[in-house]
Give the backbone structure.
Amino acid sequence: MQTTTNKLKIFNDPIYGFITIPDSLIFDVIEHPIFQRLRRIQQMGLSSMVYPGAQHTRFHHALGCLHLMQKAIQTLRSKGIEISTKEEQALHLAILLHDIGHGPFSHALEQYIIEDQSHEDLSLALMNKLNLEFGGQLDVAIQIFTNQYPRKFLFQLISSQLDMDRLDYLKRDSFYTGVVEGSINSDRLIAMLHVKDDQLVVEEKGIYSIEKFLLSRRFMYWQVYLHKTGLLAEQILIKALQRAAELASYGENIPMGKSLQFFIDKSNLRETDLEVILNRFIDLDDIDILNAIKAWQYHDDFVLSELSKSIILRKLPRIELSEQKFTDEYLKALQTGTLQVFGVDESNLDYFLFQGKVKNRTYNAKYGPINILLKDGSVKEWLAFDGHFNSVSFTEPVVKYFVSYPKSLKL
Amino acid sequence: MQTTTNKLKIFNDPIYGFITIPDSLIFDVIEHPIFQRLRRIQQMGLSSMVYPGAQHTRFHHALGCLHLMQKAIQTLRSKGIEISTKEEQALHLAILLHDIGHGPFSHALEQYIIEDQSHEDLSLALMNKLNLEFGGQLDVAIQIFTNQYPRKFLFQLISSQLDMDRLDYLKRDSFYTGVVEGSINSDRLIAMLHVKDDQLVVEEKGIYSIEKFLLSRRFMYWQVYLHKTGLLAEQILIKALQRAAELASYGENIPMGKSLQFFIDKSNLRETDLEVILNRFIDLDDIDILNAIKAWQYHDDFVLSELSKSIILRKLPRIELSEQKFTDEYLKALQTGTLQVFGVDESNLDYFLFQGKVKNRTYNAKYGPINILLKDGSVKEWLAFDGHFNSVSFTEPVVKYFVSYPKSLKL
Amino acid sequence: MQTTTNKLKIFNDPIYGFITIPDSLIFDVIEHPIFQRLRRIQQMGLSSMVYPGAQHTRFHHALGCLHLMQKAIQTLRSKGIEISTKEEQALHLAILLHDIGHGPFSHALEQYIIEDQSHEDLSLALMNKLNLEFGGQLDVAIQIFTNQYPRKFLFQLISSQLDMDRLDYLKRDSFYTGVVEGSINSDRLIAMLHVKDDQLVVEEKGIYSIEKFLLSRRFMYWQVYLHKTGLLAEQILIKALQRAAELASYGENIPMGKSLQFFIDKSNLRETDLEVILNRFIDLDDIDILNAIKAWQYHDDFVLSELSKSIILRKLPRIELSEQKFTDEYLKALQTGTLQVFGVDESNLDYFLFQGKVKNRTYNAKYGPINILLKDGSVKEWLAFDGHFNSVSFTEPVVKYFVSYPKSLKL
Amino acid sequence: MQTTTNKLKIFNDPIYGFITIPDSLIFDVIEHPIFQRLRRIQQMGLSSMVYPGAQHTRFHHALGCLHLMQKAIQTLRSKGIEISTKEEQALHLAILLHDIGHGPFSHALEQYIIEDQSHEDLSLALMNKLNLEFGGQLDVAIQIFTNQYPRKFLFQLISSQLDMDRLDYLKRDSFYTGVVEGSINSDRLIAMLHVKDDQLVVEEKGIYSIEKFLLSRRFMYWQVYLHKTGLLAEQILIKALQRAAELASYGENIPMGKSLQFFIDKSNLRETDLEVILNRFIDLDDIDILNAIKAWQYHDDFVLSELSKSIILRKLPRIELSEQKFTDEYLKALQTGTLQVFGVDESNLDYFLFQGKVKNRTYNAKYGPINILLKDGSVKEWLAFDGHFNSVSFTEPVVKYFVSYPKSLKL
């Protein structure tokens, strides 16, 4: 008799073809409102203002990670690494939920909303909440996620320079933006994974693939994630929220949903208990932000409406990106120009003229080394190879400075 | 000296690689708020509830159409068909704007919102509005769009069974859903276009390609566009809006944005002039609808909150799809069950138990015939070929009936 | 300790990414000269004269089949169908070797070379030969291949209307020719496989996918496999071999390799024992044929050199393809014209003027029915569904007639 | 009336979709036997022994280059660079024919066959031959090809670090091998081309794309073109030809075709005039080489048959690749081992134990600089940018040493 239940589901994926849900617990977690919320959070925030194809969601990315994790487990087992059924399920859960604490839009906005809590902390809090509901079935997943599980390589599959998260998001973001240069061969990278002394390692023949992977990531950072227009839109979004908070703190009526209102008033973060914050948090998604911005276009406050319009109508100010710091002289000239052109109060200057910096490291030891398994069985850090590229260029952060000012300003 | 201006822009597209903006008028039209609004309207409505990759927007689709139109013009010119620079620009404008009157979400919802006006009428009204702003530069585009331009094949490139709209949306929707079976070879179809006696025709060698194209379209209808879950979500969305309107008409406070409020109150459509309607319309997009639905989850009215939750939490009722009409007996049993299970008032029954039908024609002569240019120079309708498939199966509409009722109901 | 041996190999594949060799027996079979020979036999014969990308080999196709078989086994097991490790390996071997008896170039040429033996018979003979060498390890594979194994669905994975062979070759041939319309979703088809009463069945939700699959196959036949130019090139190749055989039988010196010489002389097929034939056969590949044709361009015999040149220089005669039989009158006129134009002996007329027919069935019950597993657990043949297409058009063979004659001939 | 002639042909291409033949002269050149010969020369030589998908031909690559050239011309014209119709056709011809002088298999084998003549010289000789036949219509193409045409950027489209040849072969080879990491975005690179002071330049926003392009090329070199197994197969092939020549020079009968025989006997290259050499050359392709190797498997000479078998049966000896030179000690040990294991004459040692080196430069100034057009209109060499990678690593050649010896040898 046919025993297929609805729970053995497959999802269509333009990248991997099909993504299979491995068991009914995973199915139930995906069906949970906390996970379904990820359908309303775009993976790449405002990058779609530059790359119109970049509309994919964190929901889809999380499923993609689940798929790659299944492949990684299969590969490691075929090489004789034992992974129990329990560990397997825990890995599936941990990778599926690794981003569950992401707020709407970008990391930058998130920091504004949740301030002193990282999205990893929120992910953990939400995983704990789910664990309660699912009667402890997420115990091992949480141990792995928090790196408290004895076998360390399991954590590295979730969080390291070669984790399944990166392997999916680089491939997926490259695919949807159409920036094919950023594409990575996640299949090949997974095929070369191995475990040695409880560490995730890469077989020696993969040293060029690692280099290629790191360079693709680097390319994506400068060409896409830190593209100046996307960066600018994100900054404007934060400015708009700051202005709304400022006006609200004076008692002005600023239209917005209840959950956004909750986070805009920073005092709430201090006063309430975690459960209340979490419940507000899981009600908050891209829709709330965009809806508020749409409404604020028509607000009486010039600053708020200008910032909001510049996003909705895509009439962004000018931004310059430079490898050198901008001179005080230049910034002073911009300041004078901005005050004259807009005729705004000096107190509002920061909304129309602002600067900052972005940086990225190609190889980031903060997430642990990438280790290579030599043919003789020994292990050596990838960076330590007689690389054909100066290793400093991989480990040193690249910093860029930006300044934004009104488009009508001519110096 | 370098004369590249920002206006000669290219867009990345995962499907075609790059989409080039041919001139500065087209650039300015794309930059216009009326067009930018399409960034906030998904091409496939709620289909992403079934196919998580289907997040692409009407903005991106319109750019895709522009790209195919450039190719079609190039092909026809290479075959000796003269198309003036003016006609070329008009074709670009007409295809870019052909969907400008689309409301948020699906056609179904649109019909609820704009009632007796088709989205083509609204597209025309918005094109006229733009034409005023651009000092008459859209005159020819509008003539072509309304089929008043003397050369009829230009209209057929915009609207026919082989128009650039279909060639892009089938390819794009297939790509983003990952339903590769629906993919069409738009390149080949365009390469075989020709013009004979002012009619768009397809060269004889293309008869199998036409068949394949029609069957791909048919596949997409039944597998994707009319997928029962997507269909259901759409019906629920309309029900929620109807309920909100009903409650609002009793004077209840139903949270929603001003533009949605405008359309919810049907009396507005009759009383105000077109300009007012248009201004409200171009402020309305997916964000407004989703934001309202999110808020309505928490409304006191059981019906409104149930319907809204079922979308946001993706807890949809059951739907059955059948090639036969459901019997009165069966429907009666469902009715009894629904009233008992939910214990709702009979007056609200229609919100929880409803039926309808969907249909699709593989070959739809309403949009004009597909004509084949034989090697001897004569023209013959595609359908008239000694087809290997019974032509009736192409022209006869396929009808399917659906009924939806609470999930907890067991018969 | 690292235990990876060279035998756990992966192959790069542009279509599936990676193809994994599941165990060392499979590895050794792939390394065997009998299998390596497939590297020198193109999958699509002379189709590359029409589609220049179609250069892929039977070697690559066989590996692709192996990959799909691994997926199919994984799917069926996940649905509770037990497949033992022994059966699994046998399925891998059987699908890998299903085409091992293919001769160089097309089926047509093959029939000329091996006459009364099908390539399936030769495949079996070669499998038996391998089985001897591998000490009986292919026993079960051979039982499955010859449909003598008790569990019948295993045979159907190797040979039926939905076997892994078709699922790979349609996808692969579509990919390499660039005829994207012929592409099938082998992932989805495999995901819907199930077993009921020892029969391979397809889950009900797959009925449209089956239709799409059959129509893609049909498209590939008429657009690619039976493309008139490819068909013609193949006919010319056979004619050249026939002419060479004819001349050789008169004692003329016709340069060619020893193995080709063996098969050209038909008396060899009757006189020698199978072992001798097999040894000659496995030495014969595309290289022998093309090399002979290249040499024959310079032969004194006008017929042989004309035919050979027309392939090497791609100066093919004219071919007409028609759904109706050509009239005697028309054929008579062609005959008169051909004799006059070429001034050849009437005895050689058949080399320059020839006709024939090709046919294809969309649904071919000869390979068993395609059965659908309904939601209630019952099984129904796909054809028996209230199809939207007349089922006759699926089961009735489509026949086309062709005639070829010199290009310079004008009627 | 329909005026489409057969000459306005399109080719299917899995990569670009369709490749259009722009005019009838180009069509006639493609139809010419000299060009048709490229159908029988694989682009990647013996790489298919490692990457089974790599079966594409130089014919297909040349068509791909033609396609990219059409795009490049379109881009440059859209930026205001005038290119006359005559220059356009010349560019098409020059890129189509840039590789026409390629011999069978790899560059390495080619050097053995044509010794002191580069394939560029042969390409030129063949272009001159064609020019005669086509009544001088290739005059401008030849001027551009030899860099004697006044406008220098036209030459750079044919031959430079960013020529259309590289843009196609990297994309194509990456595609067919399935080594997706090597894929480049030829569309983006072409979209950023410009001309300044008669030099081909890249717009400033392209500096990361250039880096990515160079690194992809570098990846393809080490992962694919110089893959140790492919490299080894190529060396063995050369050894086999050398052995055949050696034996032939002693008067032994070595079966092979006439044209190969011509090139094997080096005295022919000195004695005859160019026309004779060319006629032999255009008769020589992969088929001749493979056919000879197949036959030589059965030759009495142990060396010749061993070398030939190792290719046909893919039983290759061992190869080691190292960034350091092998020590004399190690090589001596290998020598002793090889003589003992094989028991061959010391005079034949070089056929079974040989070494060499390969090198590659990521950025090769020999082909001219890559120049970047800054926003202020000035030009700066790409290398001179404050690169994030040490520029030395780009310009310095990477050298690797290899040694090959019998597989049975264990040290």
